[in-house]
Every structure is written in C-alpha cells, then in structure tokens.
Design goal:
This protein has 322 residues and is α/β, with parallel strands linked by helices. It contains eleven helices and 13 strands. Helix content is 33%, strand content 25%. The strands form four sheets. It has a five-stranded mixed sheet, sandwiched between helices. Bound molecules: acetyl coenzyme *A. The site of acetyl coenzyme *A has 24 residues, from helix 2, helix 6, helix 8 and strand 12.
Length: 322
C-alpha cells in the first residue's frame, strides 16, 4: 500500500501584529471580552501590498526546504484559500510560477476554514492511487481584506497567514484516512454576501465582508467536530488513547477545548495557536502543525488528528501518522 507522508512543513505570518488593545481603539470591544470568549490575544495583518500568494510562497519555501526539495520537484500544487489574489488566475498558478515550477497541475480549493483538510484529502487520493509522488499543499489567507473593521462581532476573530506541507509517496505509514463533509443549508450563518457573480458592483462594506451568526455557528461546530472525531477513529479502529496530538482548526479556544475534552486530550496534547494567530481559516492547521513540528513537540511516528469546521458549512478531518 502507498501512503502520503508529510515530509516538510512551513509557515509564514505577516510582520504586523494587531493586539486586542489595538482593536479597542477601532470598535467597542475589550481585551478581556476577546480573551474570555475566544482565547485570542493578537493576530497578524498583511501589509498593504502583501497578498495571499506572498504569504503562500514563504510558507511553501520553508516546507520544500525541510523536505529537501525545490519547487520544480513537485507534481501537483494545491492552494486552499478563500482570499485569492485575483478572481483568476488561481493563486496556485501564481505560486507555481514563483516557485519555478512549470507544467505541474495547480489549482485552488475553496472550503473556507476546512480548505486545508479538503486539499490534503484531494492530494492524498492522487498519491494513494499512484498518480503523483510529490505534492505541495498550502493553506493561505489574507482575511483582513474581507473583514468588516466596523463589526465587533467578526473583526476581532480573524488574522492573516499561510502554512504548507509537502507530501511524498511512501510505503511507510502516513495519512491513514481523510474525511470531508459539507451541508450547504447553513449558507447564511457564515458568509460573505457578495462575490464576482452576486452583487458584483456593491459598495456596501457589510456585503463585501464576512458576516457570521457566531453563537449559532459555535453550537453546530462543537457538535459536528465531536462527531467527526468519532467517525475518524472508528474508520481506523482506533481509540482516543491512540492519539498523540490534536491539531485543530483555530477558530476559538473554547471550541478547541471542547473537542480536546471529548477526546480526553490535555493541553499538552493539543496544539494551540489561536492566542497568537486568531482564526486564519485554511492556514490555521498547517501553521499550527508547522509550529509544533519545528519546536519538537510533534515527533516522527506519532498519531495526529487534524480537524476543521467552517463556512458552508464544511467540515473534515485527517488522521496522520507523522
Ligand atoms: N466585544 C464585546 N462584545 C461583543 C463582541 C466584541 N468583540 N462581539 C460580540 N459582543 C457581544 C454581543 O453583541 C452580545 O451582546 P448582547 O448579549 O448584548 O447581544 C454578547 O457579546 C454575546 O455575543 P455572542 O455572539 O453570544 O457571544 P459568544 O459567546 O457566542 O462568542 C464568538 C462569540 C466568539 C463569535 C463565538 O460564538 C464563536 O467563536 N463562534 C464560532 C466561530 C467559528 O467557529 N466559526 C467557524 C470558522 S470561521 C470560517 O469558516 C471563516
């Protein structure tokens, strides 16, 4: 059997730090409210000229370096993003050119906060069936561009960043399974009301930026993440005790802790970056993974559960032998 192994990880955060105190000056909020309800202390914001592809490029170069590869060596490039540089060409093709790769297929994938797990799942299918041996999977976002800086319900929650992994075909165990789902009935609980085809000419800021019924999203997220954790373990005939690490999407510390508790995983087995990064959507899992791999917490041979929930709704998981 052929597995996809993660052989490189990378991450990049823009230099500019925006703290909760900075946000107190923009909207009617407080550091205390944000910390208590979300666990967020600060987030990074891309510079005016800095795009999603710029962040993706830096994260990708790090991941390739760890894998001992160059851009030209990968056979498929996937970028999960909700905030592409342009409507087209895809950010994946822009990235491909920056990385000096020609000819490999490259495409973007949109599943909002579940985007990275979706992309990992797609990449895994191509590797398992023998089509490609080396795949670059990136999650990259400049959510600050679709944030309504007048809306305290949302603007305190999000940040910019990018994470990347390089997958390689191997006979050694790697990705054990991926599970992806969607339910489009929840469209309006979490969305950007306008797009290139709907209300394309709107000047209304509220229509061009993220809108969320946070409390309702919260409840569905907690329930759904608990279910997908069970689905993933059952599919692999594994128990909670077999997990070494939870590497969750970083939307809210309370959601992360609820999932960890359900899995009987302590803080020392849960990778948490939401305090420093806030919610970076598709970038949050690869950023968290990269941090824990580089600081030595995650070790080769350990079993990781990656999980995410986001707009759509979409949700998904991956069980990975690192
Ligand atoms: N500062 C101060 N007060 C605030 C703020 C703020 N920034 N934002 C909201 N409030 C107020 C509200 O107005 C409300 O006041 P009211 O009671 O007078 O009406 C009160 O705080 C409570 O608001 P809730 O929305 O009930 O607060 P809650 O505890 O649910 O926390 C939060 C809100 C943090 C958004 C939470 O619901 C959440 O994390 N939801 C899930 C987010 C998520 O997982 N999204 C999916 C991924 S994102 C993606 O896919 C792009």
């Amino acid at each position: 059997r052929i597995y996809s192994r993660i052989v490189g990880t990378g991450g990049y955060l823009p230099e500019k730090v925006m703290t909760n105190i900075d946000l107190e000056k923009i909207v009617d909020t407080s550091d205390e409210w944000i910390r208590e309800r979300t666990g967020i202390e600060e987030r990074r914001i891309a510079a005016e000229q800095e795009t999603t592809c710029d962040l993706a490029e830096k994260a990708s170069l790090q991941a390739l370096e760890m894998a001992g590869l160059e851009g030209k060596d990968v056979e498929l490039i996937l970028v999960a993003t909700t905030t592409p540089d342009k409507i087209f060409p895809s950010t994946a093709t822009l990235l491909q050119h920056r990385l000096g790769n020609r000819g490999a297929p490259a495409f973007d994938l949109q599943a909002v906060c579940t985007g990275f797990v979706y992309a990992l799942s797609v990449a895994d299918q191509y590797i398992k069936n023998g089509m490609y041996k080396r795949v670059l999977v990136v999650g990259a976002e400049t959510l600050s561009r679709i944030t309504n800086w007048n809306d305290r319900n949302t603007c305190v929650l999000f940040g910019d960043g990018a994470g990347a992994v390089v997958l390689e075909a191997s006979t050694e165990t790697g990705i054990l399974s991926t599970h992806i789902h969607a339910d489009g009935q929840y469209e309006e609980l979490l969305h950007v009301p306008s797009g290139p085809s709907k209300l394309p000419q709107t000047d209304d800021v509220a229509e061009k930026t993220m809108s969320m019924k946070g409390n309702e999203v919260f409840k569905v997220a907690v329930n759904t993440l608990s279910k997908i954790a069970t689905e993933t373990l059952d599919a692999n005939q594994m128990q909670k005790e077999d997990l070494d690490w939870l590497v969750p999407h970083q939307a809210n510390l309370r959601i992360i802790k609820a999932t960890a508790k359900k899995l009987k995983l302590g803080d020392d087995q849960t990778v948490i970056t939401v305090n420093k990064h806030a919610n970076t959507s598709s970038a949050s899992i690869p950023l968290a993974l990269n941090e824990a791999v580089r600081d030595g917490r995650i070790q080769k041979g350990q079993t990781l559960l990656l999980e995410a929930f986001g707009g759509g709704f979409t949700w998904g998981s991956a069980l990975v032998k690192f």
